[in-house]
Amino acid sequence: MNGYSKDFFSKINKKIKIKILLGDISSRGGIEKVSISLANVLSNNYDITIISLYKSNPEIYFKLSKNVNIYILHDGYEESMYNRKKNLFKE
To answer: SS3 of 49, please?
Structure first.
């Protein structure tokens, strides 16, 4: 082997910080589901923070591990380029 124990690498990895940026953590879409699932798995070995630009719903739809930190920039609905409904073709 390399002379290092499994515990040694576990302690090193715990210091690594990973940030995941989302538009709206409370949305029920695929991006939110995959991001939260990834954060939950990675939180076993890394310091994970999800940064959400806003939170339009009072509750987060997908289950979040207690090891995942959340930072919400704007608590409420924010109109962005992703959730604007514009009529592009006028008759």
So the answer is: strand
